Give the backbone structure.
Amino acid sequence: MARIVLKFGGTSVGDVDRIKGVADRIERLVNEGNQVGVVVSAMAGVTNDLVKKTEAVAPLQDAAEYDTVVASGEQVTVGLLAMALEDRGIPARSWLGWQIPIHTDDAHGKARIQDVATENLEAALDRGEVLVVAGFQGMGPDGRITTLGRGGSDTSAVALAAAVQADRCDIYTDVDGVYTTDPRIVSGARKLERVTYEEMLEMASLGAKVLQTRSVGLAMNEGVRLQVLSSFEDVPGTLVCGEDEIVEQQQVSGVTYSRDEAKITLQKVADRPGVAASVFGPLADHHINVDMIVQNISEDGQSTDLTFTVGDADLDRAVQILQDQKNALGYAEIVPDRNVVKVSVLGVGMRSHAGIAQTMFRTLAEKGINVQVISTSEIAVSVLVGEDYTELALRALHHAYGLDSA
Amino acid sequence: MARIVLKFGGTSVGDVDRIKGVADRIERLVNEGNQVGVVVSAMAGVTNDLVKKTEAVAPLQDAAEYDTVVASGEQVTVGLLAMALEDRGIPARSWLGWQIPIHTDDAHGKARIQDVATENLEAALDRGEVLVVAGFQGMGPDGRITTLGRGGSDTSAVALAAAVQADRCDIYTDVDGVYTTDPRIVSGARKLERVTYEEMLEMASLGAKVLQTRSVGLAMNEGVRLQVLSSFEDVPGTLVCGEDEIVEQQQVSGVTYSRDEAKITLQKVADRPGVAASVFGPLADHHINVDMIVQNISEDGQSTDLTFTVGDADLDRAVQILQDQKNALGYAEIVPDRNVVKVSVLGVGMRSHAGIAQTMFRTLAEKGINVQVISTSEIAVSVLVGEDYTELALRALHHAYGLDSA
């Protein structure tokens, strides 16, 4: 007997038949003698519809009311799934965030879980009930409904698994695991049997959208064994686990990319101390994240070019802010560019293997791909290249690191 | 300055524009210096959609899960309306049943309100906030969501008005008041300026579907002044109030009808003590309400005919139960009849005026309408007639009691 937490996303509970399918899957686990907790999202499309209604009613949305509205989607799904289980004779009951309660901070729309109370949940498990838990939602300090941001149901599932000390947490989704790269672009992409928390975290933050970043961080901190599985095919998925559980570590585990990047170059910025602070200070004040930064070597000792990237959605605002400060910053020209992509290679094996970056640059050079900006972390190397080169770069790097399937 | 509770039904908040319209109406009341609480239903059609989903998922529905699902509709409306108010600069916040809390019993699907906690509500009113309260829902003794049954938002509004001692409770709906009879049938039907709680209660239980019966009973007990108004036209509605507030009381205030009736005749039942009990006992055991009853005078001293009415929806079950008991009851024949209608005249003036029933029977006789069964209460006389005579009977009675508009 094991204690298992499952999570099903919106597509997996997208209609009445799929909800019944989820109930079938749970029935099998219960009949095998397992204790089961299940976290569900809103039915596919529901959250988007609700968000549209809030936008139509009030351009300036009250964040607490927004949460009250959008959290209703998960409430419907838990009720329906608990019903479907009861109908099969499986004891079950729905749990909303405030009923458990799942305590969060008061950052409506992107709240963070602070604590999951276990008393009600343990009592229900002792009674032999399946826990049917609404994802994406919690209760703030003032007793109001909060939501955890897009993808928040992954975090709900990991938090539930940690709270009830589940043996594992299975995330059912519309992909069947974590791949070495995007299989829609690279036909030789392989599904990874296992991947470390650290790699998964880098993948999530570098653009692979399998799991919410925060859920992976929480799983790592709490030691929750995460599995990513397909809702629609009965095939093995990918286990996200600690480094010690992975016997033979590759140097590079995957190649990711993110098109959600834009580049800004400030030409002929004065080359003196404090310039970087005066450029990035105003952007930070406006909550614009700057990712990669490169400063060219000054040719004349007087001025230099400063290049950096921001999220695609922030580009126009960032340019406006910097134009407003043109006199203070004293640059000659501002050059924005949306046609860029960030390509990254990553793997915990990098820590012990030299030459990973070298291989990357050589491979790209051989294909005639110009590297515009470079950044590195402990387990990843990223480059910014022209967006047109996305597929070419991915295929070349995937091959160069020996990741192609046989 | 007054303290006012408003209630808007599903049609009145049926889309984003109508929700904005409701916000406009509240804005005017707030700008006039009033304290406002508003109770809203789910947007038109939403509750029916949710009910259909529950039926598709599980034929045997768990009532607590049913409530969890269907209560989500009101949650969306309160969030949207509170947002629309905030967007206009009017302080407001949404309140779900469990947040107030509105305590109910545990009869899921038809729960009764036991108590409305006032601490949160009074504090919010003191802060100058509009209370935006989800109708139809409360919280059971075990902390789960309950719903109050169809039309339950009327009861929510009256309970809120009683709890915060509102000066009045305005029920906005898709009709513009209470009429002397159904204006779709009798062109001379008049809107009543005022009607007593007792009359409104009789009207509701006799088939007029303006307000949920339970809400009228609660308003009577708590002395809440109820007003029924149109959401779509700015015209005076009908005030439901105590008898002392009505200066010149008519003998008859209205003529109602209900097609939701079916007649059963048991022919040649033994005419001895205890027969009625042995007929109606099994029906009561199966929760079938019997309304009107008439027993003919025995012709031979041995046997008699017993006629009574049940709800249309219960007819088949009632006939089945009585057929199963045929030997025990010893009747000759059972004759069911769906083609009947109950027509009633009512008014608190009946208490002090004789001859009301007399006028009714004479009027019907003059039109050649055969009265099959008669029943009376303190302020109403009802007759069962053939369904084909519905319109004829209503028009004749409306005219006979001088109710036609000039």
Q: What stands out?
A: The domain at 263-336 of chain B is CATH 3.30.70.260 (Alpha-Beta Plaits). The first strand of chain B starts at residue 3 and ends at 8. Chain B is about 35% helix and 25% strand. The mean pLDDT of chain B is 93.
